[in-house]
Amino acid sequence: MRPSPLLRHAQEAAPITDRRSISMPPTDPSARLTADADFRFYVGVHHPRLAWPLTLRGFRVCISANVLRERLYDVPFLGCDEPWLLDSGAFTQVALQGGFRQSERDYAAMIRRFARTGLIAASTQDFMCEDLALRATGLTVAHHQRLTIERFDAIRDAGTGGVHLLPVLQGRTPDDYRRHLDAYGGRIGLNAWVGVGSLCKRQGDPAVIAAILDAILRDRPDLRLHGFGCKRTSLLDVEVRRRLATADSMAWSFAARYEGRDQNAWDEAGRFALGVGGCPEAVQRLAAAGWRSAVADIQAGRSRPF
Q: Which of 17, 74, 76, 132 is buried deepest, with most CB atoms within 10 A?
């Protein structure tokens, strides 16, 4: 009789190292990137043209490598001199296509090409561990974790032009994430900015997300965690929010489409970002432009146009 998937995973999983007996690595250079705020939100946009109206108003954006890959010049979008985050486009490539179509060297070259803009970090090419991704590759959680680290090493070795390469932790259970953290070893320095993947399908239960984040932080309380694809429910949950340093989301687009509004409107993205918080520069710029009462209404849940 074939063992169940959970049993196979338990048999192949390595034991978790007791990190209390291991000396901490040196401070990671990425520590400075999250030191200026308790929490920051990066607005996910699916087209470069949406970035400029947002960065102009002080919002930070996150854009997928999938939509920037064919850009011919070193300017990914108007307004790119403001801080922004590059997503590797892992979901589309792994979950929908079964693997990365962009090589590690090509992705590293893209990061270097945009390094002279406001790009402050790029997520590594990680292999998610949701059911959809596992079915697409036919591999196990442990395989996805190993491939994620291999691609991290290859991208880092190819060079990122000084841009922080965001390591991403993957798994299904809290202990999976701890094992993946342990496998990264000394690659993750003290106070490093680290991504946590495979969260977007868990948004219906913030307690599950909090448990995963808590497991990571119990082993490494120094880490500054980034939540990929977080929805409003999780971002407004106290237990999730206090464990995150940064997060990104495109949930605004789905909500707009579902409710019959324009899913490609930058102001939909802006209202969503103000509603979840973590956008101090946007609040300041909009207030200075005479939108103080509108910002207050949006933050209080009373939606108003800009």
A: 76
Q: Is the pLDDT confidence value at 241 over 90?
A: yes
Contacts of 304 (CB under 8 A, 6+ apart): 294, 297, 298
Amino acid (one-letter) located at 136: A
Contact in structure between 191 and 31 (CB atoms under 8 Å): yes
60-64 and 84-87: which strand pairing? parallel
Residue 196: strand pairing partners: 169, 227
Question: In the chain, helix, strand, coil percent, each to 5?
Answer: 50, 15, 40
pLDDT in tens, 169-219: 999 999 999 999 999 999 999 999 999 999 987 767 899 999 999 999 999
Q: With the CA atoms of 78, 82, 88 and 91 taken in that order, what torsion angle do they form, in degrees rounded to the nearest 10?
A: -80
Q: Supply 223's token pair.
A: 């880490």
CA–CA separation, 18 and 210 (whole Å): 21
3-class DSSP state for residue 127?
Answer: coil
How many other C-beta atoms are found inside a 10 Å radius of the C-beta of residue 33?
20
